[in-house]
């Protein structure tokens, strides 16, 4: 088996040498639905499996009963109940940089898994269907700014992972028509994201934080659709894996430092860590151990010390750690420093702060 060494020159070659094709140049969009599979027993047997299967659900339910996680679960269910009152199934979320879609729908998914209340599942599915109907083939082509002549897809990071999660976890709560709608919606956003990822502009801005978000999202979408379309999901997955590993070994330096600071480090690293977790489940490989992420945790600790000043030159960036799923995801793999970071963010009492995967990956610090 060949080993690849990821350095910035090679990354740029891989990203920029690929053929750049505008969306308007691919005629498959005219008959996109013909490339999407209909239900089969084999497809049904795959779900849930993306980020966890039945064993993961059982683990979360056990964790939910422990004293450490009980306040977390109470917060989660209260959050989901509040969202039920505030957001109806026909609520249309615009395609903008806004994490509310993720926070709301994921609270519904995990509340359903813990309580079995079907209202949570139905609302997550309904809101996601409204989003897909509104955005499918409707993401506009940009005429200025980043990625001119490509769809304005820079915000897929906030939507695609949640669509993949809802489809995978709530598969049995959906109809056959729902399954087809989710497949084509996820495939459409993956297809757009891949089209952007093979541009020269994407390669030259490789170190940017949203590259991590895009590729994590693309990887999750490609994994959940494996064998469920006649599109090139294997290419999407390969691109997401290569760029994600390279980003975590080049954009994140060998000593763990990320030049855009802790705020941007944590902003979209969540998608990356969820993708590595899902990819590791599928392939049996510890992708975290092949990156500079362990060193980056030490850098985060150093950066969050009370220096009394900020080091970033971004007006919206801070050297301040905040609640995020990635901390819990990494805690299980690097428990010592992970425990410290979890306690620094949450104190001694873990609370739900739109970080549902802490229930699956986290644990009470030693």
- List SSEs in N-to-C order: HHHHHHHHHHHHHHHH
C-alpha-based Rg, rounded:
20 Å
Q: What's the total number of strands? A: 0
Strand content: under 5%
Shape: globular
Major beta sheet summary: none
Number of helices: 16
- The portion of residues assigned to helices is 55-70%
Structural class: mainly alpha
Mean pLDDT: 85
- First and last CA, distance: 39 Å
Point out poorly predicted stretches: 1-25
Topology, element by element:
Elements lengths: L7 H9 L24 H4 L9 H11 L5 H17 L13 H16 L2 H18 L24 H10 L6 H22 L2 H5 L4 H16 L8 H18 L10 H23 L9 H11 L21 H7 L3 H12 L11 H4 L5
Please provide a written account of the structure.
By secondary structure, the protein is an all-alpha fold. It has helices spanning 8-16, 41-44, 54-64, 70-86, 100-115, 118-135, 160-169, 176-197, 200-204, 209-224, 233-250, 261-283, 293-303, 325-331, 335-346, 358-361. Helix 7 (160-169) packs parallel to helix 10 (209-224). The protein starts with 7 loop residues before the first helix and ends in a 5-residue tail after the last helix. 44% of the residues are buried.
């Amino acid at each position: 088996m060949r080993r690849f060494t990821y350095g910035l020159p090679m990354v740029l070659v891989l990203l920029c040498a690929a053929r750049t094709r505008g969306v308007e140049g691919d005629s498959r969009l005219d008959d996109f639905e013909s490339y999407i599979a209909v239900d089969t027993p084999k497809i049904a047997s795959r779900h849930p499996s993306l980020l966890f299967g039945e064993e993961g659900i059982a683990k979360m339910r056990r964790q939910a009963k422990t004293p450490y996680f009980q306040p977390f679960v109470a917060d989660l269910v209260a959050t989901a109940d509040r969202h039920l009152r505030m957001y109806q199934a026909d609520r249309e979320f615009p395609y903008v940089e806004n994490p509310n879609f993720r926070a709301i729908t994921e609270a519904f998914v995990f509340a359903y898994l813990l309580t079995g209340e079907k209202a949570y599942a139905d609302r997550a599915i309904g809101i996601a269907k409204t989003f897909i109907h509104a955005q499918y083939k409707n993401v506009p082509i940009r005429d200025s700014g980043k990625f001119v002549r490509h769809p304005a897809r820079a915000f897929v990071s906030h939507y695609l992972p949640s669509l993949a999660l809802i489809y995978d976890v709530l598969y049995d709560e959906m109809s056959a028509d729902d399954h087809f709608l989710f497949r084509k919606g996820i495939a459409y956003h993956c297809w757009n994201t891949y089209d952007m990822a093979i541009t020269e502009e994407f390669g030259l801005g490789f170190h940017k934080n949203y590259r991590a978000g895009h590729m994590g999202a693309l990887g999750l979408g490609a994994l959940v659709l494996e064998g469920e379309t006649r599109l090139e999901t294997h290419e999407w997955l390969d691109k997401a894996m290569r760029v994600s590993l390279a980003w975590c070994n080049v954009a994140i330096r060998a000593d763990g430092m990320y030049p855009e600071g802790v705020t941007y480090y944590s902003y979209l690293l969540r998608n990356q860590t969820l993708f590595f977790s899902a990819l590791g489940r599928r392939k049996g490989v510890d992708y975290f151990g092949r990156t500079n992420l362990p060193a980056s945790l030490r850098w985060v600790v150093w950066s969050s010390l009370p220096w009394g000043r900020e080091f970033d030159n971004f007006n919206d960036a801070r050297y301040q750690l905040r609640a995020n799923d990635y901390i819990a995801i990494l805690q299980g793999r690097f428990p010592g420093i992970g425990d410290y970071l979890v306690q620094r963010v949450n104190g001694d009492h873990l609370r739900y702060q739109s970080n549902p995967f802490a229930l699956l990956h986290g644990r009470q610090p030693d």
